Amino acid sequence: MIRLLFVVLLALLPILPTPEFWITLGNYIGLYAIVALGLVLLTGVGGMTSFGQAAFVGLGAYATAYLTTHFGWSPWIGLLAGLAITAAAAFALGAITMRLSGHYLPLGTIAWGLSLFFLFGNLEFLGKYDGLNGIPPVDFFGLTLQSGRAMFYLIWAVVIVAVVALQNLLNSRSGRAIRALNGSGLMAEAMGVNTTWMKIVCFVIAALLACISGWLYAHMQRAVNPTPFGLNAGIEYLFMAVVGGAGYVWGALLGSALLTILKDQLQSLLPKLLGSNGNFEMIVFGLMMVLLLQRARTGLWPVLRGWLPQQVGVQAPATAAALPRRDRPAVGSVALQVRLARKEFGGLVAVNDMEFVVHAGEILGLIGPNGAGKSTMFNLVTGVLPLTSGQILFQGERIDTLPSREIVRRGIGRTFQHVRLLPTMSVLENVAIGAHLRGSAGVAASILRTDRKEEQRLLFDAARQLDRVGLAHLAQEEAGSLALGQQRILEIARALCCDPTLLLLDEPAAGLRYQEKLALADLLRTLKAEGLSILLVEHDMDFVMNLTDRLVVMEFGTRIAEGLPSEVQNNPAVLEAYLGGID
Ligand SMILES: Nc1ncnc2c1ncn2[C@@H]1O[C@H](COP(=O)(O)OP(=O)(O)OP(=O)(O)O)[C@@H](O)[C@H]1O
């Protein structure tokens, strides 16, 4: 309803006797919002900060300006050319910069933002710092969009299409993968997401949106010069996204509207108040940013949304065709085989020629005192760390040379010692990330909504896994609001969504209350009865002794005992390791 009102208001604004000034302001808000929407995807959702978006706006503007003024080509060809050039440039830049992490990434974006800006200002054929004039208006089905009012419709039509496309994308298999990028990417890779590729895709989409904004700008202004495409503008775009709420599609619109109106008002007010001319609004923006980062880090949209009627989250269908499942190996056959696995960190041998086997349908516990090398062993099996020497085989195939996403593809699901969830996303959607490799719909299918059938199947499976672990009643809750015990179970449901034949659990009982541990043990027994193999690293002796079929004990990276829990319990070497020889 509110969305409909918004569209009707937009449609009426140019017809009503709205002053030209407000129409122009509305046009600018729309142009900025298109760029900020790209930043929502890239920075807010994907977690990659970019200061360089203005340069892509420039590419879109200059491409059409040059082609229409020099060759007399149609603005639409200018748009296609701009998109092609931007996609190529963004792909090349993204392939280099998206691999950077921490503060190197924003620094990288500043570097290419500046480079493109100076390129625009120094190329003779682009008119150097004077730019290009005489850009023709856009023709739209025989209608020449000469006035600001006519451009208003085109600009806001693009904004609405971009909003819908982005919302479609975010509520899909690819969208969940993009959301999982935020952070180290370890969880995303463990669920089968090719994080480097996904980051480049986000980068290219954000750049294309910026390019479209530049194209619209060029045909609205009918002239371009390098000034609006510099680093300052890049920072302002980021301001808009962050102020509005970088993690939210509507935050981009809110931020662009607020900052554009505020900037305009401050530009006329502050010089009068202070008695001299200057960019004083930037000081106010700076202060505003500091205040916002203190008070409302996620931006203003989440605050505003709290006052609006709540929307129903993503729901799983009541029924859908089940996803195909992989064949289970025969119970008792060798599932995982670790052969002389060794891991050295400099001079420290964290895992010392370890050997053990996990059979199909058994629960194997890997235990040992602190620093014994359990987590390192776990990381070797899951492909997080490379082996120094040795081999790891899964169902007869070597997996020690594969990245995490290829290991999960072969049927090894995992959980994390420190839970890795997307706290603001629903429990159902968190679990559905696990089904990533069981779907194939890409970004285009998500945007165009041709992925709906597959999406229903993925969500149905996620709901089924939630039901299997006993969390179905929490499907619509935010994952971050769950108790730790429930979050650990959620991670198991997510791992089950990968359709694994081997489940690797890293300290699943850590931080759980007694009752929660009992429930977890019951769940793992049920999974075992269904034919699943489970390898768990655990500290809690009671939990391990009552649950596992066999135990492997490590100390100083070496296997010191292996056998039934009752045998291991009385093994002198194990008692020595745990109790230091105390009787
Ligand atoms: N990335 C690393 N670089 C250097 N040393 C490391 C690294 N990771 C682990 N270690 C060292 O390897 C040894 C084994 O550590 P690991 O974390 O695997 O033990 P653990 O049995 O899992 O211990 P805990 O039960 O306390 O988690 C320790 O001495 C640890 O300090």
Automatic annotation (TrEMBL):
Classification via InterPro entries: AAA+_ATPase (IPR003593), ABC_AA/LPS_Transport (IPR051120), ABC_transp_permease (IPR001851), ABC_transporter-like_ATP-bd (IPR003439), BCA_ABC_TP_C (IPR032823), LivM-like (IPR043428), P-loop_NTPase (IPR027417)
Keyword Nucleotide-binding carried by entry: yes
Domain ABC transporter, first and last residues per copy: 336-581
Residue stretches spanning the membrane: 27-47, 79-97, 104-123, 150-170, 197-217, 237-262, 274-293
Entry membrane topology: Multi-pass membrane protein
MF annotations from Gene Ontology: ATP binding
Localization (cell): Cell membrane
Pfam families: ABC_tran, BCA_ABC_TP_C, BPD_transp_2
CDD domains the UniProt entry points to: ABC_Mj1267_LivG_branched, TM_PBP1_LivM_like
PROSITE patterns the record matches: ABC_TRANSPORTER_2
UniProt keyword terms in alphabetical order: ATP-binding, Cell membrane, Membrane, Nucleotide-binding, Transmembrane, Transmembrane helix, Transport
Protein name, per record: Branched-chain amino acid ABC transporter ATP-binding protein/permease
